Amino acid sequence: MRALIVDRSVPGGLRIGDVPEPVPAPNQALVLITATSLNYGEVKHGIEMAEEGTVLGWDAAGVVVQAAADGSGPAVGTPVVTLEEGGGWAELRAVRTDWIGVVPEHAEPGAISTIPVAAGTALRTLHRIGPILGRRILVTGATGGVGRYAVQLARLGGAHVIASTGDPAKHDEALRALGAHEVVSGPTQAGGGLDGVLDMVGGPQLVEAFDQMGAGGTLVAVGHSTGEGENFPFGAMFSGPGRDNRSIVTFMLLFCAGLDRDLTWLAQQVADGVLSPEITWRGGWDDVPDAVGALVERRLHGKAVLDLA
Q1: For the segment 7-54, what is each residue's pLDDT rounded down to a tens digit?
Q2: Cα(309)–Cα(256) distance, rounded to whole angstroms?
Q3: pLDDT tens-digit map of 207-226
Q4: pLDDT of residue 41
Q5: InterPro entries, per this entry (predicted)?
Q6: Paired strand residues for 159
Q7: What is the DSSP letter of 75?
Q8: Is residue 241 packed enough to be buried (19+ CB in 10 Å), middle (13-18) or exposed (0-12)?
Q9: What is the mean pLDDT of the chain?
Q10: How many CB atoms lie within 10 A of CB 57?
């Protein structure tokens, strides 16, 4: 079968090649992939770190062509959205059934393929913050794939949403259209008293965001795009009036239970137009170097989708 294979001798570090078809484990379904989305982390770090010949790819949408032998998961012919640690950049993929979401028949596969990492991470992060109705939530790195879904989901959940981006003037209109009440240039402009932070940036911005949280606030460290460490000054962790019981937490999406339910719900919202997939690049097999370059160089805001069918 065709797949995108890690080959760092070519532009973008990927080439089209032939690999053996996957053999599903008893708890895995075999899925014919029609579209996949690319994430910054996998093209920036995955290609650098993977062995030559590896097939990467976390997100993919397609149709079940072989149901799981243990009887779990969707039947043959079911349109699905899938998450795995690799294998999404290929024509066929074996996927654990608890990482498969069922997709409405009318859904567009490219839009659906943007869901697993970006929307799944945003949803689980907001769950980790807790009830957000009427709460002030800051989303840093708001123009990225996770950030754009987070802005929409936080607004859908009834939060007052503050979107942070390095160029507010450029992205103000688009982020407000997604649901942001405010668009700022960084955490220090958020006004303090935050109930929750979804941080995609890390480094100094994470430190600044923590300082802007009010009592009981939760900061979820999701992304680390700066590549810098977090250096908290003396006193940053002191408690006191309006600053008590603040926390910083992390999580890994692949360690979460119930992802099949999350993916199914998110697919329905995207299919119904409640959530926008925010696709800003789309192409075919031969266009991958362009997408990889745009993602690594931070020229692409939103999601990149690759049509494989």
Answers
A1: 999 888 999 999 999 999 999 999 999 999 998 888 888 888 999 999
A2: 30
A3: 999 999 999 999 999 988 88
A4: 83
A5: ADH-like_C, ADH-like_N, ER, GroES-like_sf, NAD(P)-bd_dom_sf, Zn-ADH-like_protein
A6: none
A7: P
A8: exposed
A9: 95
A10: 27
The mean pLDDT value for 66-93 works out to 97
Q: What percent of the chain has pLDDT over 70?
A: 100
Average pLDDT over every residue of 170-180 = 97
Domains and CATH numbers, the chain: 2-114+277-307 (3.90.180.10), 118-253 (3.40.50.720)
- Structural tokens at position 248: 């910083």
**Whole-angstrom Cα distance, residue 239 to residue 245?**
7
Query: 247 — phi, psi (to 5°)?
Result: -145, 155
- Contact between 81 and 118 under an 8 Å Cβ cutoff? The reply is no
Tell me phi and psi for residue 4, to 5 degrees. Answer: -90, 120
Whole-model pTM?
Answer: 0.94
The β-bridge partners of 81 are: 61, 101
Beta bridge partners of 248: 219
Report the C-alpha gap between 241 and 244 in whole angstroms.
6
Find the helix or strand (DSSP H, E) in which 145 lies: helix 145-156
42 in helix, strand or coil? helix
